[in-house]
DNA sequence: TAGACGTAGA
DNA sequence: TCTACGTCTA
């Protein structure tokens, strides 16, 4: 029951519907939505190259939402310890490389949003906010990517993803082989 | 359902029996056995001072088991970043202070063991071991504590706990008010 | 071994 | 803000 032995699933997860909420990252892991505890990009190998299977937007990076069906996701890495600032270049490896490859393969990518709510401001610390739950937001495809330059002249990758038309309900794509 | 709002429980948790297994620390949190994700000592305030409610032994510290009913638990803190070595003094605060106070109050302390199993040694890394699950081990009382001196001349607290006689089964102490 | 959009509490 | 016996993957 607890044995997921590294098998990644591409596309929708049987039994998980768009809008389903989860309290902890570990729950995303258990149901198979996202097999990482912290990393925002999950990926698998397919035909000799890695492709993205799911991403989590938790607010730790700079992600824009222009349109309900379009999102811009920042690549991972480039943070320097202490200050948690982006001073180093992001590299085209791991999750970033997987997202780039997914542009060509046009595969489905599961998207999970971290929903925040303002906590009571009794806190003596400035944060005052907290991720309360994660919401499965359905299937997207990576359209294209570009590079931006951060304040320290560092390289940041940006990926534009668009929701798959008519596939908001994961059941409609179950057992889909195309990608 | 997910709202535990900081309420700590002293003694056994209804529905949780000795020997129950859990995969992740977050599960201990959810059922109420131990309300911390990483810290090994949970505690609450009682009559103006803090007392320990539960401890987790995960193997990260030096804990001895002389006798099935007696265990020695190391205090927390004193680790220096990088190397994860004990070079600094542990302080009589937080969880350590709570355990000391529990000697006087003689309150029940829930004990959870992390059980390890050897993983397949395919790993290129030296570890080869992994905590597979946590086991609820029943109720204990803190008998006494002492200080030891580490390699760097640093102070380490040690606590001896003894299993509560006849209380291996938590149901027999449910609703107990004595502590 | 080191890094990763983790978490809560003090 | 920082610490805490976290967890996994590469």
UniProtKB/TrEMBL annotation, chains A, B:
Coiled-coil annotated residue ranges, if any: none
Recorded superkingdom: Eukaryota
Occurrences of domain YDG (ranges): 11-163
Compartments, as annotated in UniProt: Chromosome; Nucleus
Name this protein carries in UniProt: YDG domain-containing protein
Residue window of the full protein shown: 254 to 432 of 432
């Amino acid at each position: 029951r607890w044995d997921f032995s590294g098998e990644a699933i591409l596309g929708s997860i049987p039994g998980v519907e768009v809008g389903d909420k989860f309290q902890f990252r570990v729950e995303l892991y258990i149901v198979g939505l996202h097999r990482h505890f912290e990393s925002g990009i999950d990926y698998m190998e397919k035909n000799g190259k890695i492709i993205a299977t799911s991403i989590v937007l938790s607010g730790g990076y700079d992600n824009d939402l222009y349109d309900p069906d379009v999102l811009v996701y920042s690549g991972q890495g480039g943070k320097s310890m202490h200050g948690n600032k982006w001073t180093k270049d992001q590299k085209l490896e791991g999750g970033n490389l997987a997202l780039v490859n997914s542009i060509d393969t046009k595969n489905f990518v599961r998207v999970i949003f971290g929903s925040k709510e303002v906590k009571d401001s009794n806190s003596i610390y400035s944060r005052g906010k907290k991720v309360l739950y994660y919401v499965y937001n359905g299937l997207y495809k990576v359209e294209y990517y570009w590079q931006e330059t951060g304040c320290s002249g560092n390289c940041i990758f940006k990926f534009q993803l668009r929701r798959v038309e008519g596939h908001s309900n994961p059941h409609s794509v179950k057992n889909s082989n195309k990608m």
